[in-house]
Amino acid sequence: MSIACYIIFPQVYSLDLVQNSFIMKITLLIEATLIFHNVFALIQCALLLSYTILAIYQVLHCELAIINKNFLKLLKKLQNGHRINTKELKQLKFILNQHITLSYYILRPDKTTWSQALYYYALISIPINVTIMCELIVEDLLPETKLLIIMIAIVHGITGSFPFLLAANMSSDFHSIKDYLPAMQLQLKRSTHLRLKLKYDDLYERLITGRKISYTFGTLGNLTFRGLFEAFLGYIIGKL
Question: Whole-model pTM above 0.90?
Answer without folding.
Answer: no
